[in-house]
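Training component of the fellowship. As part of building independent skills, the fellow (R.M.) carried out the full modelling exercise for a liganded target. The chosen ligand was phycocyanobilin. The inputs are recorded below so that the supervisory panel can assess the work.
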Amino acid sequence: MQDAITNVINQSDVQGLYLDTNAMGRLEQYFTSGELRVRAATTISANSAAIISDAVSKALLYSDITRPGGNMYTTRRYAACIRDMDYYLRYATYAMLAGDTSILDERVLNGLKETYNSLGVPIGATVQAIQAMKEATASLVGADAGREMAVYLDYICSGLGN
Ligand code: CYC
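Fellow's submitted model of the complex:
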């Protein structure tokens, strides 16, 4: 896993250089948004269940997915779906704090699309649910932090192939 700081430092290190103005600028941007990131993560962790249930009710409930034959039908699959949503929200929050997507590649997206395809988990509906989670999050944390979280939730959606 990397973060915004190690990412900038590694790029200078491979060239054997001190940080240049551009690298310093990127670090400064990360530091000045630090308070925003920490505050957003605190709000998200205190409201994670509400964010997920809001997204599930807007994007998934009472659709064919929750009826017999749908991938969320049976409490076991319903629970697996809620658990997956919680993974996405929690890992997107980690990535937002780190200011870096690498944790998503390593711990969430690695092999995920293949797993979903082999189990018949619908990727389009998953992406819609993640988008609904993005909106629910933004309405709690505000537009600026919401945009920051959107970067990482969108990254998960692109990694799923959409
Ligand atoms: C299943 N989701 C799974 C499985 C994995 C993940 C590995 C298969 C094993 C299992 O059932 O636990 C995902 N596991 C992860 C991720 C991580 C991990 C991301 C990283 C931390 O360790 N079905 C729908 C909805 C969607 C859904 C659209 C919710 C958004 O229709 C999810 N995922 C879903 C369901 C299953 C699943 C229903 C069970 C499918 C089955 O067993 O038939």
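The panel noted the following from the submitted structure. The chain has a mean pLDDT of 97. The first helix runs from residue 4 to 13.
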